[in-house]
Design a protein that fits this description.
By secondary structure, the protein is mainly α. It contains 4 helices and 3 strands; from the N terminus they run βααββαα. Strand 2 and strand 3 form a beta hairpin. Helix 1 crosses helix 2, helix 1 crosses helix 3 and helix 3 crosses helix 4. It starts with 14 loop residues before the first strand and ends with a helix. About 15% of the residues are buried.
């Protein structure tokens, strides 16, 4: 999965598993299952078993649920779809960056 994240997030900016569950309106055990399946990745893991997530995890959890419930995709398929969506997002950003570069080059040639 291609994930671009800010590395300078402090613990106070992170969400607990219970908070991710609350904000995504999903059961904490379901969030834990997503983690165990590798579909949702915590930002930090402590030896105590506590998991902390960035706010993007709420959107990802909702996306996983929607893919399963609305589209009937199994967990392996969900992982593949998430990877492909990340790749599409990355490529779209790259296209925009290259367009901007071309436009700046064109302006310099005038």
């Amino acid at each position: 999965m291609i994930i671009v994240r800010n590395k300078d997030i402090s613990d106070r900016d992170l969400l607990s598993l219970a908070e991710v569950a609350y904000h995504s309106k999903l059961h904490p055990e379901l969030i834990a299952r997503f983690v165990s399946l590798g579909l949702l990745e915590p930002r930090k893991r402590y030896g105590t078993g506590e998991l902390l997530f960035d706010s993007e995890a709420v959107l990802t959890a909702k996306k996983i649920w929607r893919l399963r419930q609305e589209h009937g995709i199994n967990y392996a398929g969900v992982g593949l779809v998430l990877d492909l969506l990340d790749r599409i997002e990355f490529l779209e950003l790259e296209v925009e960056r290259l367009k901007a570069l071309l436009n700046s080059q064109a302006c310099m040639d005038i």
